[in-house]
Design brief:
Order of helices and strands: EHHEEEEEEHEEHEHEEEEHEEEHHHEEH
Shape: elongated
Helix content: 25-40%
Distance between the termini: 32 Å
Radius of gyration: 21 Å
Oligomer: single chain
Number of helices: 10
Largest sheet: 9 strands, mixed
């Protein structure tokens, strides 16, 4: 049995990590639950930054939770047509419907609906954050088929980095090689929304099929579509070794100011929105000092914050990171 390797001392952990380790959701999602008033500690409403000591009882939506002792890490071959979200408003079949796993797990990153291939599922928030953070430069490998021949000019353009107007960002240089007349291999170290599809569109072609075949050292191999397996002890050991020097945005928020501007394309957008408490406090301050203009309450900074958040949501997307 694999067990959690925590960076915190037992009995005194941040609430969002406690919720993440219980397999409820990621730390960022946990912060949202806390902000929405859906989390209680010993019967009292929790706040962002709360810590959980030994013996405390934590409830999410009225249900008591506790961290899992067993670390779950699964490799799944996501078929086309499956979405990597818990949002069922659109009637899509989700990866959770497909797997029907008996314990709470969440995906490490996403593949959009029309993409297929390797997806990692876990209940370990630390591993999720370290793999997801673009600043750690962890590799993800894809096989892509397009509607036009793969030329040397195409490979050079793709590998050199492209400016994506929709996201207002330039992609990082990456490894791209031809594996067939219409098929190429690409290795990314970032995960922008529909990145490969947008890059191909910028080169004047359309993606016909997209399959992720590797995340760091874990490979898809011969795993059939719709099937999952446990990551082996050997794979897990290699993964931990690769992650040992990786930073975790949940543990290192004090370094947020060193992140580059998202418009320069060298940050992971969900991390750029990580300090939600500070943003909310600023928003409240601005709202309190708002002035009346043209018969309505306005504040330039508040509107700018809203516009910036809308742009970030567009960049981050909700349908995949390939």
């Amino acid at each position: 049995m694999q067990t959690f390797q925590s960076e915190n001392q037992p009995g005194d952990v941040r609430l969002n990590k406690y919720i993440s380790d219980a397999g409820v959701c990621s730390r960022r999602e946990a912060d949202r639950l806390i902000t929405e008033g859906r989390v209680q500690i010993d019967g009292k409403m929790a706040t962002l930054g709360s810590r959980v000591a030994s013996g405390m009882q934590v409830y999410v939506d009225g249900k008591e939770i506790a961290p899992e002792e067993e670390m779950i890490l699964l490799a799944v071959n996501k078929p086309r047509g499956i979405v990597c979200t818990t949002d069922t408003r659109w009637g899509d079949r989700t990866i959770y419907d497909l797997m029907n796993y008996p314990k709470r797990i969440f995906s490490i990153g996403r593949l959009d609906k029309e993409s297929e291939g390797l997806l990692l599922m876990t209940n370990n928030g630390d591993i999720l954050n370290k793999i997801m953070r673009a600043g750690n430069y962890h590799e993800k490998e894809y096989l892509v088929t397009i509607d036009k021949p793969v030329t040397e000019a195409f490979l050079k353009k793709m590998s050199g980095g492209l400016y994506l107007k929709e996201l207002e960002v330039r992609t990082r240089p990456c490894k791209v090689s031809s594996v067939g007349e219409f098929t190429f291999q690409i290795i990314l170290t970032q995960g922008l929304n529909r990145q490969i599809r947008r890059m191909c569109a910028a080169c004047g072609c359309h993606v016909l099929s997209l399959k992720r075949v590797r995340i760091m050292n874990i490979e898809l191999g011969s795993l059939e579509p719709g099937v999952y397996r446990k990551v082996t002890k050997e794979e897990y050991a290699v993964l931990l070794e690769a992650l040992k020097d990786s930073s975790n945005p949940g543990e290192h928020r004090k370094h947020m100011s060193s992140f580059q501007n998202p418009k320069r394309g060298n940050t992971f957008f969900s991390e750029a929105r990580e300090p939600e408490r500070n943003s909310r406090e600023k928003m409240e301050k601005f709202q309190k000092t708002a002035v009346k203009r043209n018969g309505r309450t306005e504040n330039n900074k508040t509107r700018n914050n809203k516009n910036r958040n809308n742009k970030n949501r567009k960049k981050e997307g909700n349908r995949g990171d390939d």
